[in-house]
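Lecture notes, continued. The same structure-token format from the folding unit now serves as the input rather than the output. Read the line below as a description of shape only.
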């Protein structure tokens, strides 16, 4: 996990891990069958035990807000986790437990099972998307709401060709990546609240 945290999953190999631990590569195979199983164990250790949301105030909305914020924090501590948790695979009980507590937060809201699962899919997708919002190539502006270097070196050209984008960036002011995360999270929760209010009425 330390190796992946520092250098990413691309740096992870059975040979490298064995060397870091002072073992031979073959010695590792007494514990895991290969790299895929090693990563599965790493995911379980990295995500940790799911949160106890029972005492979180604010009903379902407060619980899901806390859940999303803790998921961000976990992925920030282990930047390799988003990439390692893509696609169909066998999931461990700790990771499944995170989904369990999120779905449980929506119990009694009037949403059916499919809607509950879709709601959590939307929220986890938002966490995943905003976790990578600082990566190059995801949008033509920086996390400081400035035009990327390619556009900022041609301000007149950029303003003429992309007037709406240029005006939006000019009026955006100072912001942080956390503000984008929170903006999207609150808008998603607003939408769920409208639906839940309709059902409870």
């Amino acid at each position: 996990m330390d190796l992946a945290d520092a250098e990413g999953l691309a740096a992870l190999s059975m040979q490298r891990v064995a060397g870091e631990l002072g073992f031979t590569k073959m010695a590792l195979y007494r514990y895991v069958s290969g790299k895929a199983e090693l990563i599965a164990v790493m995911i379980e250790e990295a995500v940790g035990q799911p949160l106890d949301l029972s005492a979180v105030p604010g009903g379902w909305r407060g619980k899901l807000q806390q859940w999303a914020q803790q998921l961000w924090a976990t992925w920030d501590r282990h930047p390799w986790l988003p990439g390692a948790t893509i696609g169909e695979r066998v999931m461990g009980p700790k990771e499944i437990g995170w989904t369990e507590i999120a779905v449980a937060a929506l119990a009694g809201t009037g949403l059916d099972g499919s809607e509950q699962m879709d709601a959590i899919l939307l929220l986890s997708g938002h966490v995943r998307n905003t976790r990578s919002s600082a990566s190059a190539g995801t949008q033509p502006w920086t996390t400081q709401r400035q035009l990327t270097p390619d556009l900022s070196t041609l301000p007149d050209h950029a303003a003429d060709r992309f007037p709406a984008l240029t005006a939006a960036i000019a009026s955006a002011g100072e912001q942080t990546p956390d503000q984008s995360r929170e903006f999207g999270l609150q808008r998603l929760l607003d939408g769920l609240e409208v639906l839940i209010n309709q059902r409870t009425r």
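Point for the exam: The chain has twelve helices and no strands.
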